[in-house]
Write a structure and sequence with these properties.
The strands form 2 sheets. Strands 3-2-1-4-5-6 form a 6-stranded parallel β-sheet, sandwiched between helices. A 6-stranded parallel β-sheet has the order 9-8-7-10-11-12, sandwiched between helices. It is elongated. It folds into 2 domains: 138 residues, Glycogen Phosphorylase B (Rossmann fold), CATH 3.40.50.2000; 146 residues, Rossmann fold (3-Layer(aba) Sandwich). Helix content is 34%, strand content 15%. Helix 11 links the parallel strand 11 and strand 12. It is of the alpha/beta class and 340 residues long. The protein has 12 helices and 12 strands. Helix 7 packs across helix 8. 44% of the residues are buried.
Length: 340
């Protein structure tokens, strides 16, 4: 095994914002994490209004982020195999593309720690904000792993010298809009998001409960609208068979269209999954259903009106409390109030 001796930050390096022309921001995935990073991205843009800022992300999010006003360019990370010489060196070359003078690592994962190492041992890393050992602007808060994503990233940037807003504002997705003609039902509607990671079943509320919730929403005069991809086609079918008044938009929407639908919805309900974070940030009153594999204090959705119900096992969460919380959110928005 090769031991890497990494340089420690120099005491002579001033805190950001530096007078730099070229900045790289790293935020790879997933959708929910990307949405929650928007306040940090906005803070970076406000601190560096004249700099050329490039976002390094992954392929599924390129189209969305090319419309984001905080970035001048978006690049896709091919996610090379870092344990091979070619992958390690190729990653270093990729990171040096455009000659960034400052790098903000908002992913702060093992992978991006190796990205810092790749730069450090192939000519030196530019000033780097993150949690990589030896970086110029380390997020040195020992409690960082117990902070919600929004507060953690704001704290990271504050330790790099950027101004901090208190409280940290929720994500702003007002720039993510698209035509939803032909997708809107008549009257008030609620977005139901029964899907989630196929490898994380514990994050999913049972689909029969979504079907029962849809029936309850119809009684409230609200049309249930099911979102998802082909992976959720079976769940959508179960909901629509139990509730024929519901509408399925499975595999019929882009990320931009989901955000636009959220601005018109009176409610959104889903588990700890990217689309729920998206619709909450875009403006829908949102109810997150969380299990023991998701800690709301660390990753709850943030938006104008959001609430979370938690059970160790989501199979133990009946329809009643969800329907009650849903009606509360709908009523609060209708009456111009805020929840929480």
């Amino acid at each position: 095994m090769v031991t890497l001796s990494l340089p420690l930050p120099s005491a002579s390096i001033p805190l950001a914002p530096l007078s730099v022309d070229r900045i790289l921001v790293i935020k790879l995935s997933a959708l929910g994490d990307l949405v929650l990073s928007m306040p940090a991205c906005e803070a970076i843009r406000e601190a560096h209004p004249k700099a050329h800022i490039t976002l390094l992300t992954t392929a599924p999010f390129r189209g969305l982020m090319e419309d984001c006003p905080y970035f001048d360019a978006v690049r896709v990370d091919p996610r090379r195999r870092l344990y091979t010489p070619s992958g390690f060196l190729g990653t270093a070359r990729m990171l040096r593309e455009g000659d960034p003078q400052l790098i903000y690592d908002l992913q702060t994962a093992d992978r991006t720690g190796w990205y810092f190492r790749a730069l450090a041992v192939t000519g030196g890393a530019p000033p780097w904000s993150g949690n990589a050992r030896g970086c110029a602007f380390p997020h040195a808060n020992p409690d960082r792993n117990n902070m919600h994503t929004l507060e953690r990233q704001a704290d990271q940037l504050a330790m790099a010298g950027l101004p901090r807003k208190d409280p940290v504002p929720p994500p702003d997705l007002s720039w993510a809009r698209a035509d939803v003609t032909g997708l809107l039902p008549d009257g008030p509607f609620a977005l139901l998001i029964p899907g989630g990671s196929p490898h994380r079943e514990m994050k999913r509320w049972p689909v029969d409960r979504f079907a029962a919730l849809a029936q309850r929403l119809v009684k409230e005069g609200v049309v249930p609208v099911v979102l998802g991809t082909d992976a959720e086609a079976e769940e959508a079918g179960i909901i629509l068979r139990a509730c024929p008044e519901a509408l399925s938009l499975v595999n019929r929407t882009t990320i931009h269209q989901i955000a636009s639908l959220a601005t018109r919805a009176c409610l959104a309900v889903g588990g700890d999954t990217g689309p729920l974070h998206l619709v909450a940030a875009a403006g829908a009153p949102s109810l997150g259903l969380y299990s023991e594999v998701s800690i709301p204090a660390l990753c709850a959705p943030r938006g104008r009106d959001t609430d979370v119900l938690w059970r160790k096992d989501l199979r133990d969460l009946p329809v009643g409390p969800v329907a009650e919380a849903a009606v509360t959110l709908i009523s609060a928005r209708k009456n111009g109030h805020r929840v929480g």
